[in-house]
Amino acid sequence: MSEIFRVLATATAVLALAVPAGAAAATPSTAGDPVAACAIDYGWVQVRPLVYIGSVAIHNTGTAVINGWTLSFPLREPQRVISSRTATFASLSDPVIAHNIESNGVVAPGSAVTVTFAASGVGTAVTDFTVNGTACTLTAP
């Protein structure tokens, strides 16, 4: 088995832990409502020299329910999303555009959803995130 397949197998195993058994297939909801306020926790773990696992927690800090979301953030080349089971991706690099899946599209006020993904390259700090076009506050650099 080549090194890239070992890395992808490891990344897939890590991502599988983030999706409950029996979760719905990756089906994005329709365009989300505008978001009044949101906050983001972002982090990553380097699992191989050129592969990392990223995690973005979207916190609804507003008073209305988020019903369907689109997350956008910059990810500079050569970094590129290679897999995820917690979102569908319309764009894999700068900018990354991710849409909710059926099981995580509704975010109640005071709640959060987490998007995990495997990416190529070396993980770096990302500070600019939007949800449904609204800029979010970064809570953990």
In short:
The protein has 1 helix and 12 strands. It is mostly beta strands and 141 residues long. Helix content is 11%, strand content 41%.
Instruction: Give the fraction of residues assigned to helices.
Output: 10-25%
Which structural class do the helices and strands define? Answer: mainly beta
Characterize the biggest β-sheet. 5 strands, mixed
Number of strands: 12
Unreliable spans are 1-30
At the fold tier of CATH, the topology name is Immunoglobulin-like
Task: Report on this structure.
The protein is mostly beta strands and 141 residues long. It has one domain: Immunoglobulin-like, CATH 2.60.40.290. The protein is 11% helix and 41% strand. The strands form 3 sheets. It has a 5-stranded mixed beta sheet, with helices on one face. A hairpin with a 4-residue loop joins strand 6 (88-91) and strand 7. Residues 1-25 form the signal peptide. Keywords: Signal. Residues 31-139 form the CBM2 domain. InterPro entries: CBD2, CBM2/CBM3_carb-bd_dom_sf, CBM2_carb-bd_dom_sf.
